[in-house]
Amino acid sequence: MSNEDTTPLISKTAFNCPHCGAYTTQHWYQLVADSYSEEHRTPTIPTPEMVEEFRTAREIDRETKNSLLEWGGKMLSGKPFFESNNASLYSRPVVQNCNLSKCYNCKELSIWIYDQIVYPNTKIDVHPNNDLPENIRSLFEEAREIVDSSPKGAAALLRLSVQYLCKELGESGKNIDKDIASLVGKGLNPLVQQALDVVRVIGNESVHPGEIDLNDNKEIAVKLFGLVNLICEQMISHPKQVQELYGSLPESKREGIEQRNAKAKGDQ
After folding, report:
1. 154/151 Cα distance (integer angstroms)
2. Strand locations in the chain (E)
3. Are strands 14-16 and 23-32 parallel, antiparallel or unpaired?
């Protein structure tokens, strides 16, 4: 198996595409600038209603209509694309520090400013647990979007996610140390507790969740992604799965189990 680094870099002609993930050839393009005319001084951004007007317009010939509909559809997708233009480029200035790469496999464009991809958003390949509450999933996804450009910001969001998760599980959500201790008493896996405490102690313990810790880096942020999912799996997903399985038992069987448990408590 090849040990070649497949990370997207502006100095490469092949890397893992940020769109489709395939390791393949990337074609590079420079950009030229063309000012808008006095008649149209701002960019033209079509709306769905405008495109629909193209579709229903009777005064437009079929070839022009098809061209407008194709252009409108591409514009509404929000993705960059190439549009052929036969006008001379000699008088147009080249845009520096802004380049495009086009994937040989999926044909999608990526936009680079200096040496960083600004489109598409490159998210870390860690997805939130499906059982995470919506407000925590939102923080998790935001952290995924910024972890490369701001690992300290991502770590702050993930620490806040842990705090919210503790609150979701019935804790105060104010003191993570006390919350962890309480969760351990409720059955939190001791290994998860140890991992939480490692991340809590790394850096400055006096930093409150949601605040920037100058000692945080991408490695710590990546660990926090996993921790949020681990706590959710241990404290939400597993109990939910057991309850669903238990609920699928015939009612007569569940009544028998409840009677057995009640008798056992009475015998104590």
Report:
1. 5
2. 14-16, 23-32, 94-103, 109-113, 116-119
3. antiparallel
Task: Report yes or no: 151 and 165 within 8 Å, Cβ to Cβ.
Answer: no
> Helix (H) and strand (E) counts for the chain?
9, 5
Per-residue tens of pLDDT for the chain, all 268 residues: 345 667 788 889 999 898 888 899 999 999 988 888 888 889 888 899 999 998 898 888 989 999 999 999 988 888 888 876 655 556 678 888 899 999 999 999 999 988 888 888 777 778 899 999 999 999 999 998 888 778 888 888 988 888 888 888 888 877 777 888 888 888 777 877 887 777 667 644 444 555 556 567 778 888 889 888 988 888 889 888 998 898 898 888 888 888 888 877 777 6
| pTM listed for this prediction | 0.53
**CA gap 93, 165 in Å, rounded:** 52
